[in-house]
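Board notes, transcribed. Complex of a protein with DOR.
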Amino acid sequence: MTGPDLLVAGGEVVVEGRRQRADVEVTGGRISGVVAAGTGRGAERVDAAGLWVLPGMVDLHVHLRDPGAPHKETFATGTAAAAHGGVTTVADMPNTVPPLLTADDFARKVVAAAPQASVDHLLWAGAARPAEFPAFADQGALGVKVFLAGPEQGRQYGSDLSIGDDGRLLEVLAAARDCGLPVAVHLANPAIERVWRASWRGRGLHELRTQIIDESRLDKVEAAGRVLLLAEHTGAHVHLVHISAAALPLVARARARGVRVTVESFAPFTSTDDFDRLGVMVYDRYRRPDEVAELWRAMATGEIDTIASDHAPHTWDEKLAGDRDVLTGASGYPELDTIYPMLIDRVLDGHLDLVRMLEIAALRPARLAGIAGRKGAVAVGRDADLVLVDPRGSWTVRAAECASRAGWTPFEGRPLRGRIEQVLLRGRPPAPGRGTFLAPDRQEQAGNQRGERS
Ligand code: DOR
Ligand code: ZN
């Protein structure tokens, strides 16, 4: 009888919510044993003494710009950035050029992505054409993505993807419910935004500064209330992305009424100092200190289900444009190389418990995506997607060492505690072409849509 082909020996592993030293045995790319330290076997041995053996992050919100903008990112460079940062599963968003709107677009992306991909991946489909939803469901889409932004913002989100009125949103939610597809929602109110945009026109970011941050809470909260009402009415599952802390009380009330809602946060890593220093680079991810505190609190309690990078690579020039006229600036920044290391740093500085962090960064996203049979935890039967971290190590973020094609990071020069020593995808180092397309297990996904919580 042949034994395991790999042994990751003596590391610290989170097993069923508890940290313990263990040996991890890997057979054919899957975890075949998690046993007492010193008792495991394996043809090949990796010494993990003193290291954390974490599951790879499952990041359900990335913009890989493929097809359409290879100067910013491709499936190859974006998934290389993921692999570098310990993110072994990503879910790509449909606002590409052209956008992913049809079953044919979906099929093309599946075929184009796999040979380039360094990590496993799922795909979100655009929500603008409900007639396509049954095909998306059959093809293995994670779900559909709704951008509630108006046509003025189409430049950034792809105007074909905007669902700017409530009637269409109602149709989208009903169709998604019928097909068992979760609906990721980018909250916005185009009518309110039109008024703001008129007053912001021609003004640079530094002039407007916190006005934007404060004002934009209104439309996010208004949209959250509206979407939750429509979700309640239709019975669709909505997944509210980059949630505003101000909308969390509405989510709590909706959950109490049985609305199928999950929420995602980006990680609020930028401070007032960063905002003063980096302005245009970070303004769209900057939150006031009270809101940042609230988001970390909600991550710790589990009110926030998942954390995602919202990896949004743009060229430097596109970002700088916002300094002159905020309406022409691009929003978002590249984060796949850094999101997991930054979260690990926050664990090591006491912001967030390790077990909790792994729940929102790996376990719950895997459940939401219907891939928890394979991903999201270091446990027998799961894929051996392992990230070995030296908790006593440290490093400094440098764009030059990042794999994203964006070529810059707002976190340049930031020292981080904890150092990723090794990343394994199904037991071996990630490499272009090793990543595979993942289709959700709909039953498992549906269980989580009903708000079954760990
Ligand atoms: O900040 C953002 N950037 N939000 C989005 O929804 C789109 C994204 C992008 O594609 O750059
Ligand atoms: Zn996004």
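The longest strand covers residues 386-396. Confidence is low (pLDDT under 50) at residues 450-454.
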